[in-house]
Amino acid sequence: MSTTSSARNGTWRNWGGNVSARPAREVAPASVEELAAAVRRAAEDGLTVKAVGTGHSFTSIAATDGVLIRPRLLTGIRGIDREAMTVTVEAGTPLKRLNAALAREGLSLTNMGDIMEQTVSGATSTGTHGTGRESASIAAQIKGLELVTADGSVLTCSAKENPEVFAAARIGLGALGVVTAITFAVEPLFLLTAREEPMPFDRVVAEFDQLWAENEHFEFYWFPHTGNTNTKRNNRSAGPEQPVGQLAGWFEDEFLSNGVFQVAQWVGRAAPATVPAIARISSRALSARTYTDIPYKVFTSPRRVRFVEMEYAVPRAALVDTLRELKAVVDRSGLRVSFPVEVRTAPADDITLSTASGRDSAYIAVHMFRGTPYHAYFTAAERVFTAHEGRPHWGKVHTRDAEYFSRVYPRFAEFTALRDRLDPERLFQNDYLRRVLGA
User: Fold this and answer.
1) Which of 45, 189, 230, 235 is the 20 to 30 A CA-CA neighbour of 82?
2) Which helix (H) or strand (E) holds 364?
3) Contact 377, 337 (CB under 8 A)
């Protein structure tokens, strides 16, 4: 099974399998000029336009019954500027190819998410992030953008050129145009030492502020129905490189985290009553380990077990209360949750609709195995998150609308005004954007 979204019989489906669409036509432009022509032609034919990468969003953000643009031919590095320490890449480049290419050049992004299957434009347009005390989302590392706007013209923006577009388009939701190239800040390749170890839930939440302050990148997974978590601390290291051994890596990352975990999910889906027992075993399966490697080999990991996800950013100061409330809801609900809850952080940034826009944030992600009913759990979790003015990840399941976003994003009107200017006819509209940005 491919790790990307698929199209069969003219129907497009996302990676999580929870969104499908039937576009009128699909286009895979081989150049920016071809893409601009496809946008102009769609406008002439009265069709809307959406670009889609690997379909890793769980929302219908990329779904369209108009023209679906596949950027798979718009890939590769356009140029590296070692003086400015930037790299410019085509929008359809998968993050894994970018990471490997940069490493060969002795370069790296400063921070990244834990999955690298997505395209650079798909990941940044939805606000994909990892965890970091000082280093923010992938979009916050953007220094310049090129996009084709609704009239078919090519617009470039940066902090100096079209700064109001730059402020918004780094996380543009596909609402402002089709991104064709991105310039990222890079730095010389460095080493990270990862320290992974189990820790009781009560200890993690009691010491969270200290764990956050002492580590450049801290995250943890809590296993519902247990008092157990797995913690991960990533910090820069002088070396030497000590990667995870091949056998240990296969056993822990493939066999336990993907293979056995997949079987456990099947069992839990077939017999929900077994979930708490499975959770207790799962939460103890991974033992403590420490290893040192280049960034993308530490930050990212393979994810072969398919799931559906909801993730909210709450103010970092509200994390512990939010998490305790979520645990209480799960404990008293009778819900059977077989997937761990992931907790990460990000510093405030200056991107208009970034989930960390203007505030230090903590992320809480809830997951359910694909094919398992998730509505009851996600609805209960969302109630907890929104009580703390949570902002949902744009690419993950949520039920919020423009009215809600106008309350939790101080600069929401700034984004919608820019959209009115760049796409007055709503060429890039779809049902999802209609809901989250308003008509």
Assistant:
1) 235
2) strand 361-369
3) yes
Contact of 395 with 127, CB cutoff 8 Å: yes
Q: Sheet containing 86-90: which strands, arranged edge to edge?
A: 77-81, 86-90, 178-185, 142-148, 154-158
Sequence letter at residue 358: G
H/E segment holding residue 375: helix 375-386
pTM here is: 0.92
Both tokens of 437, joined, read: 């940005």
- Residues in contact with 119: Cβ distance below 8 Å, sequence separation at least 6, in sequence order: 53, 54, 71, 91, 92, 93, 94, 95
Tokens of 103: 């490493």
Let me know if 160 is exposed, middle or buried by CB neighbors in 10 A (0-12, 13-18, 19+). exposed
φ, ψ at 47 (rounded to 5°): -110, 145
pLDDT tens, residue by residue, 325-337: 999 999 998 898 9
Per-residue pLDDT tens for 85-104?
999 999 999 999 999 999 99
| CA-angle at 60, arms to 165 and 58, nearest 5° | 100
Q: How far is the CA of 279 from the CAs of 231, 265, 307, in angstroms? A: 16, 10, 16
